[in-house]
Amino acid sequence: MHGLIGKMLAAAGKRDEVIAILLESTAKMPGCLSYVIAIDPKEADAIWITEVWDSKESHAASLTLPEVKAAIAKARPMIAGFGDYHTTEPVGGVGISQG
Amino acid sequence: MHGLIGKMLAAAGKRDEVIAILLESTAKMPGCLSYVIAIDPKEADAIWITEVWDSKESHAASLTLPEVKAAIAKARPMIAGFGDYHTTEPVGGVGISQG
Lengths: 99, 99
Known about the structure:
Two copies of one chain form a homodimer.
Chain A: E1 2-10, H1 15-25, E2 32-40, E3 43-53, H2 56-62, H3 66-75, E4 79-94
Antiparallel strand pairs in A: 1-3, 1-4, 2-3
Helix pairs in contact in A: 1-3
C-alpha cells in the first residue's frame, strides 16, 4: 500500500471552501482505501489530509481523473501552500476499505 | 470527530514487533473509526499512526481497555520515543467506518 500524510494551507478564510471541494472530488477514486480530511484546532487555515492507496500507481492515476483535475483547478487559487508532507507504506489497521 | 497523527520510533530492529502488537491490540476499540499503521520508507525505525475517533472521550477510554493496556506494557521496552504528534478534527472522507 501507499500512504500520504500532508498539511495543506488554505488562503485566509478559505479553508472550509477548500474542504468542501476536497470532500466532493475525492469520494470515488479507484484504488483509494482511505482519504481523511481534518482541520487543525491550533491552526485556522490548515487542512490535514491522510491517504491510503492500494498502490503508488493508483494515486498517480487519481490526479488525471477529470473530476480531480477540475477540483484542483477550482481549489488552486484558495491554496496558500503546503506544510508537512510524508510518504508512508501502510501495513494495516482499521478503516482501510477495499476500494 | 477526534484525530491523531503521530510518529513513533521503535528501538533499533524492533519496528516490526511493535507493529505486530499494535495491529493485534487496536483491531476492536469502541469508537475507533480509523487506525492506520504505516512504515516510513525513509526512516527504518519509524511507525506512523493516523487515527480517527468518534470523540476524544472514546480515545481516552481506549487507553484503559485491558488489551490496550497489556499491549502498551508489552511494547514499551521496544519504543525508543515519539516524533511528530498532531491532534486534528476530522471532518469527513473515505475510510471512516462507523464503528
